[in-house]
Amino acid sequence: MMNDLHDLGRRTAALDKVIELSVLLNDDMDRDLARRNLTRSRVHVVWLISQHGPMTQRDLAAVIGVSARNVTGLVDGLERTGFVRREPHPSDRRALLVTLTPHGEETAADLQRGYVELAGQLFGSLPPRRLDELTKGLDHVLAELRRAIAEAESG
Amino acid sequence: MMNDLHDLGRRTAALDKVIELSVLLNDDMDRDLARRNLTRSRVHVVWLISQHGPMTQRDLAAVIGVSARNVTGLVDGLERTGFVRREPHPSDRRALLVTLTPHGEETAADLQRGYVELAGQLFGSLPPRRLDELTKGLDHVLAELRRAIAEAESG
DNA sequence: GTTCACGATGAAGCTACCACATGATGAATG
DNA sequence: CATTCATCATGTGGTAGCTTCATCGTGAAC
Q1: Cβ-Cβ contacts under 8 Å, B30 against chain A
Q2: Which residues face B53 on adjacent strands?
Q3: Which CATH code is given to the segment(s) B37-124?
Q4: Which end of chain B is more exposed for a tag (fewer CB within 10 A), N or C?
Q5: Is the CB of A84 under 7 A from strand D?
Q6: B54 contacts: CB under 8 Å, gap ≥ 6
Q7: Would you write out chain B's pLDDT as a tens digit for each of its 155 residues?
Q8: HEC string of chain B?
Q9: Is any atom of nucleic acid chain D found less than 7 Å from the CB of residue A112?
Q10: Cα distances (Å, whole numbers) of residue A119 to A122, A137, B70, B144
C-alpha cells in the first residue's frame, strides 16, 4: 500500500486542511447568523421551510434528525424572534404547520444570496480546470467517507 | 468576471460539497467521541494537554478561545470521567495544572491513531497527483476564506 | 366506540457557552 | 513591609441545543 511516512504526512496534512476549512467556515457562518439573531439550529428550520414550504414540527424533526421535542424549542425561539408562525394544520387538528413570516422569507433569500456570494469569494478566483480538480477530489473524499461510515455502522 | 449561471452553479456545488464533508466529518467524530465518553469540547482540552504538557486552566481558555469559567466546567467533566487530574501549580498557588491521567494519555494516543487512520481511509486511494491537486485547491480556498474573514472584520 | 397510534408540549436533566461577583494569591509600589 | 492592583479559579445565574419520559388531545382503524 506504500504507506511510508511521507504519504502519511501528506494525508494527515490534507485532513488538517479539510478540518481547518470546516472550522473557519462554521465560525464565519455563526458570526453572520449572530448578526441576524439566528443560530445554526434555528436557521436550519428556516431553510427547510423556505425550500419545502410549511411543514409540521414532526416532519422538521425527521428531516433535521433531532427529537420532536427539540423542534418545539427551536420553533419557540424562531416565533419569539419573528421568523416563523405556527398555524393550524388544515386537515389534522393535532399538528401545526410552521410557516415563514415575511421577515423569515426575506432572511432566507438573504442567506441564499450570501451563500452564492461566499461560493464566489472562495472559488471565483480558481481557474475552471482547478475548480474541476478540486470538485473531483472532494467527491472522492466524500465517497470514501460515506463508505467508511457505512462500514463502521454495519460491521 | 464571467459570472454566468454555469460558473455560479459550479461554485455553489463545490461549496455544497465542502459543507457536506464538514457535516459528515463532524458527525463521524462525534459518534467516535461519544463511544469514548467524550465530547468535542472536552477532547480539545485532552488534545492540547497531550501536545503541550500540563497547562493551567487559564492557558487552556486562552488557547481554546473560550472563557476561563467554561474551562472550569470542561475540566470538571473530564475529571469526573477520569481523563484529567487537577494538580497544584508548583510555583503559583492560585493556579492549577491540568494533567492527563494514564487513561487520558491512552485516549490521546488512540485519537491520534484514529486520525491518521481516517486520513488514510479518505485520501489513501487518491493517486499522489490528485492528492496534490486537492491539497492545492484546499489551500487556495483556505486563503480566500481567511482573506474574506479578515476583510469582513476590518471593513 | 373503544383501542391504539401519533402530534405537540410540560418536566427534568445534560453539555457548552456567557457575564458578573468573590476569595485567595501574586507582584509591584511606596 | 503594608497596601494596592492584577490574576486564577470558581459560585451564581442565564441562554441555547439536545435528550427521554409523561401527558393530553386528536386521528384512524377494528
Answers
A1: none
A2: none
A3: 1.10.10.10
A4: C
A5: no
A6: B87, B97, B98, B99, B100
A7: 556 888 889 999 999 999 999 999 999 999 999 999 999 999 999 999 999 999 999 999 999 999 999 999 999 999 999 999 999 999 999 999 999 999 999 999 999 999 999 999 999 999 999 999 999 999 999 999 999 999 988 86
A8: CCCCHHHHHHHHHHHHHHHHHHHHHHHHHHHHHHHCCCCHHHHHHHHHHHHHCCEEHHHHHHHHCCCHHHHHHHHHHHHHCCCEEEEECCCCCCCEEEEECHHHHHHHHHHHHHHHHHHHHHHCCCCHHHHHHHHHHHHHHHHHHHHHHHHHHHC
A9: no
A10: 5, 17, 34, 10
Q: Which of B121, B139, B144 sits opposite A122 (nearest CB)?
A: B144
Question: Hey, is the C-beta of A138 within 8 angstroms of any chain B C-beta?
Answer: yes
Residue in chain A closest to B5 (alpha carbons) equals A116
User: Structurally, what CATH architecture does the domain formed by A38-102 represent?
Assistant: Orthogonal Bundle (1.10)
